[in-house]
Structure formats: C-alpha cells, structure tokens
Amino acid sequence: MARIYVIDDDEQLLRMVGLMLDRGGHTTTLLSDPIDGLEQVKQGKPDLLVLDVMMPDMSGHDIARQIRAFKGLEALPILILTARSQEVDRTTALRSGADDYLSKPVTSQELIERVDNLLHKRESRTKPEQGILIAMFGMRGGVGQTTLAVNLASALRRLSQEEVCLIDLSPAGGQAAMHLRLQARNTWADLPTANELDWTVFKEKLTIHPSGLRLLAAPAVPQSATEPSPELTETFLSLLQSKMTFTVVDMPRVFSPTFTAVLDSADIALHVLAADVVSVQTAVQVDRLLNKTGINFRQKSYVLNHVQPEAELPQSTVERGLNARVASKINFDPNQSRALAQGVPLTLTSAKSPLPTMMNRMAEVIWQRVANAAKK
Amino acid sequence: MGSTHFGRNQLISVDLFTDAYRVTGRVLVGTGGIHAELASPNSDFLELQDAYISRIHQPGEIISHYKVAAFRKDNINFIVLQDRREGIPVGTQHGRSIFTRGRSLSIFLTVPSFEIAGEIMHDGKIAPREILVQTIGRFLLVFSAKASASLYPDISYSGDLILIHKDRIGIFCLGS
To answer: What was the pLDDT predicted at A342?
Structure first.
C-alpha cells in the first residue's frame, strides 16, 4: 500500500482516479488546485504522484519540473495522466521529468498496473556505496563521442532517476551544453584550485538540465589555457563519486596527465571509434600509448559508432584491426542531426531509432549491474 | 478532459490547429457532431471551452489557458479527433450515409506547415476536383489520419478523424 497524491483540476475525474487507486489498495490524497497541490507534495512527500497536464495557472509539466528540482523529491515517481494523447505529448511529459505517461480515458486496470510498476521500480532502486565513473574517449574527432556521452548520461538519468553528472572536458569549445540546449554560466575553467574545492563550491558550477541531469560544461570558446590539472580533476571526480550515482566524462582528445588520471579512476572506459581506416589506426595507436602508461582498466570496451550512412569498413575488419571485439555497434542514425539542432538528446525522446535504442540498452546494462552489485 | 454529455449535446475534446498554434479544448456539439458546427451558417466562429494553447514548434508545452476561446472557422487549418463518432452525425458512422458511403481512397494533402495522410470515403467520380468541390461542408473528412509537421517530421498527430479546411489545402493527391 502506497501514499499516492493525485493533482487534477477536473474534480469529477479526480474522484474517479481516487476511487480506482483506493480499490487498488492505496491511500490517496486528492488535490484539485495545482499550485496548492505542488506545496502539499513538497510537504507530504508521497510515494507516488499522479498528475494531470492541462490545468489552469500551472501545467503538469511545470509541476513535474519543480518537483525534480526540489531536494528530497528528485526520485519521486510521477505518472502523467492527460487528455493530450499524441506522441509529442508523451515526449514532453517524459522530458519534463515524469516517469510514465497515460492518456485519458484510462481503465482501472491500466492505471493500477502502471502505478504498481512505478512503485516496484522505486523499491528496486538501491544506491551503490560509491558512484560509477564512465569515461568516453578516443583521439579521432568526428566519431560522435560527445553525442554518445550526452545520450548515455541522459539515458542513465531517465532510467534510474538517480543523480547523474556529465563532464565535458573538451578544451576546444564544449559542445555538450549545445547538445542539451543549455546556457552554462560556469564551466570547468571557473573551478578554483584542488585545495579550495569542496562539494558546495563544485555543485554551484554545475548546470542543471530540465531532466535533472547535471553538467560541468567546457568553456564555449576554445581555450588557450590547458584543461583542468590532474589534481583538480581527481578532486572533483572523487567528489562526484561520493555524491552522484553516475558520472559520465566526455574526455578531451588530448593525451595528457588529465586524460590518464580520468581513465585511471574510471570504472568503465568506452573507447569510441568510427568504421574508417583512420579511426581504427588512431585507436590502435592510442591503445599502444595506454599500454605504456600502465593504466589498470577495470573495464574497457570498444564502441563502434557509424557516423556515416555507409560504413567504410565492416565490423569484422575493424575488429581484426583492433585485435579485439567491439562491444557495442551503433548504426547510422539520421535523426541525430535534427536532435542536435533542436538541443534534445534522442534518449530523452521516444524515438526508436538506432542511437537511442543502443544507448538505452547500454544504460540498462550499466544500471542493472549497479543494482545487482548494491543488492549483494 | 473526455467527452461529457448534456442531453443530446456533448462536450468533445479536440486538438485544433491554426497556422502557428495548437489548441486543445472542448467543443459543445449536437447530434450532427463537430462537422455540423463547422458547416453551420449561423456563426463564422467555433467556440472552445478550457482552451490550452501551445506554439506549433513546441506543441507539448502549454503557454496559456483560457476558459473560453473563439476561432474564426476560416483560420482553422485542421481539427484532430480521437473518435470519428464525435465528428459526424450520430447514426451515420456505420450505415451508408453521405459521410461514410462509397469507396475508401487513400489521400495525401498539405495545409500550411503540415502534411496529412489518411483515407476518405467517396461515392462518385474519382477526381480531386470532384472530391474537393462536391463534398459537403467547408471541411474534408479524413479517417485514420496522420498529420506530420513539414519542418519537424518527428512531430505528428494521429486521429481517428481529421477535419481539414478545404480552402487551406495546398497539394491534394489521390491514391488507390
């Protein structure tokens, strides 16, 4: 039995939804005023919220966004229930922070199933003692490394509803903020020295996306200065591992002490390459360099990203060149250029194209591993 | 915001599109469905209750809400309904009425900012001019239809019935 709050301005429907949930064995609080409802949710901290979208004064999307930004309610399961039943409405609901979406009219069975499913997911969420650090790297530009990092971080946030941070360590004009259509007021260039850095200072430098994903942006203008020092990087990665469930680092394409410091701390290192000769040759050279540095990888995998409609090399040839298996292959996704133009990562949409399908699968595997490890 | 009955009248939910806006709301219709309201010579306006307005390029985001909103019928590009029974006169949906008799033809057409595909029912000579000029009312009935935004093809709206203002049609193509 769970404590469920329902916010809907249509009192007749509100009573009906309340009745359905009562019959499903839950305790309901029915709220017809959206502004008052939001306050009640903040104070009452229910187990789940059922939310209408079309309400006067404040829409359900605005309420969901405010709840996601409110401390202590970041993980509250939200089910949106609305008469707007188009695919675009589902996408908007999920982007605003909702966990699931149902269009009216709804049957009692459907509602109870979705509610129970969300409650079950919430119970099975178990936070690991230390956050997982994922590094995406590769020295060849134009292989979609930032795209994959942004989409993996977004997918992890959407799937787990845990704290997820994306770090853009690019020194050559950060693009992660552009992928997320964020105006970053602070970047890693604004961080103090390692000695002066603590969590309070660091979190002020993070930009929050409406989905709840946090971003440490890179300077928008290519830096004449170098990337953050290895000491500073190790300090903030350590802070992130204690505060965030997942940290995804979009690595610089410069082989440097900072580069190796991140890889040394990473729980999962994903080497991104495209299916072309230069990309494979570069990957082989980078591997040789990494072997010389003696980094002890906990887990390292190759991700083959098809950034062109026609692959120059088949996967088997790439694997022969690398002398290793490719763990994940992502087929060319024509939707990506539009996603970039719109500033919405594909994993935050309901698109079923190759890139979000693969990145969601990757996020599920990582999240499952974390959940299983925490249960042990 | 589902359908609500008031005697022989009912409030039906609609998604209405103008050149720049998507408006979701409810329309009070009689037994003739919304098609009769749109064809009515008594008013050039269609009134919506509980109107929620979104911009066409951000159709999921609600920018404002009004208790009542009126639309010039000539400025409506199309209206999406989830149930065809709310669009045409009661009793004519299953029988052979002027709205549902004839053969099913697949069509593709454009209105400002949107392309729409679906099926029409037509009894008579199969020619675009015949269909557009001879059919009843200002709005064309397209069943099992999908409207896709021309500039944002991933934004689309599906409906059991879409009513399209004939004067707003730019391209009209007939299939089989």
So the answer is: 83
In chain B, residues with a C-beta closer than 8 Å to the C-beta of A181 are none
| Lookup result for tokens 């409506």 | B76
Sheet holding A48-51, edge to edge: A27-31, A3-7, A48-51, A78-82, A100-103
pLDDT in tens, A216-261: 999 887 765 567 888 899 999 999 988 899 999 999 888 888 888 8
Selected for mutation to probe chain B from A8, A16, A80, A85 (highest B CB count within 10 Å) is: A85
Interface of A with B in 33-72 (CB under 8 A): 53-57, 59, 61
Q: 3-state DSSP call for residue A67?
A: helix
**What are the tokens at A150?**
């942004």
Q: Which of A81, A86, A104 best probes binding to B when mutated, by most B CB atoms within 10 angstroms? A: A86
Cβ pairs bridging A and B (under 8 Å): 55
Name the minimum distance, in Å, from the CA of B117 to any CA of chain A.
16
Peptide bond just before A105 cis, omega within 30 deg:
yes
Rank A30-44, A206-220, B6-20, B119-133 by mean pLDDT and report only the highest. Answer: A30-44
Could you tell me the pTM of the whole model? 0.56
* pLDDT tens digits, A110-164: 899 889 888 877 766 555 568 899 999 998 888 999 999 999 999 998 888 788 9
- What is the value of ipTM here, to two decimals? 0.83
Closest-CA distance, A214 to chain B, in angstroms, reads: 22
Instruction: Give the separation between CA B132 and CA B156, rounded to whole angstroms.
Output: 24
